[in-house]
Design brief:
The complex is a heterodimer of chains A (113) and B (117). Chain A is 0% helix and 50% strand. Chain A contains no helices and 11 strands. Chain B has 117 residues and is an all-beta fold. In chain B, strands 2, 5, 6, 10, 11 and 12 form a 6-stranded mixed β-sheet that branches. A 4-stranded antiparallel β-sheet of chain B has the order 3-9-8-7, with no helix packed on it. Chain B starts with a strand and ends with a strand. Classes of the chains: A mainly beta (113), B mainly beta (117). The A-B interface holds A 31, 33, 35, 41-45, 48, 50, 55-56, 58, 88, 90, 92-94, 96, 99, 101-104, 106-107, 109 and B 33, 35, 43-45, 47, 50, 91, 95, 99-110.
């Protein structure tokens, strides 16, 4: 069965650079969620989209933005990267039409040097 | 506001011992979902179990079992006859039973389980 696809899996960027993370939800899933997990921390909710509209927002820095496109994939854009942005970024997707648990992607490990 | 507390930071056991992970939650919602996820060293989040708030029946699935007690807001998880491959961080999580919030989790801080041969 198709799963949530995140790309890239690993990314190394320098301070002040920009990074774009991509998330491809499970087919027919209309809701996407982004999480950030720092070293030794639990995943923290950043932002979510339902039917291409932002549905909820957590502790997402102003330097980050995200959107969901017409094909339901989502991108998280991170600018002016800081060392503290080094983390594992997860995307999850779910369907509003029939409840199943939200499925997580394998994550993107971002390292800022 | 929702809150999930996992008081155990790390549990070390010898293979074949049972491991019980504690989870206490707070929510103002009357209906909600509770989860356990496993995060091995490779980093991915592996779904283990889900319970909804109106089903307090406790079950066993293979070596996993759980004890959900709404009266004490606890959702404990047990691994029976632990194996080295069970070594991972285990997260308890809570989500609202609302259409566009099913995947918005409040995670606990996690419990590191170390199983030695």
């Amino acid at each position: 069965a198709a799963g949530v696809i995140q790309s890239p899996r690993h990314l190394i960027k320098e301070k002040r650079e920009t990074a774009t993370l991509k998330c491809y939800p499970i087919p027919r899933h209309d809701t996407v969620y982004w999480y950030q997990q720092g070293p030794g921390q639990d995943p923290q909710f950043l932002i979510s989209f339902y039917e291409k509209m932002q549905s909820d927002k957590g502790s997402i820095p102003d330097r980050f933005s995200a959107q969901q496109f017409s094909d339901y994939h989502s991108e998280l854009n991170m600018s002016s990267l800081e060392l503290g942005d080094s983390a594992l970024y997860f995307c999850a997707s779910s369907s509003s039409r029939d409840y199943t648990e939200a499925f997580f992607g394998q994550g993107t490990r971002l390292t800022v040097v | 506001a929702q809150k999930v507390t996992q008081a155990q930071t790390e549990i070390s056991v010898v293979e074949k011992e049972d491991v019980t992970l504690d989870c206490v939650y707070e929510t103002r919602d009357t209906t909600y979902y509770l989860f356990w996820y496993k995060q091995p060293p490779s980093g991915e989040l592996v779904f283990l179990i889900r319970r909804n708030s109106f089903d307090e029946q406790n079950e066993i699935s293979g070596r996993y079992s759980w004890n959900f007690q709404k009266s004490t807001s606890s959702f404990n998880f047990t691994i029976t006859a632990s194996q080295v491959v069970d070594s991972a961080v285990y997260f308890c999580a809570l989500s609202r039973m609302v259409t566009d919030s099913w995947g918005k989790f409040q995670f606990g801080a996690g419990t590191q389980v170390v199983v030695t041969p």
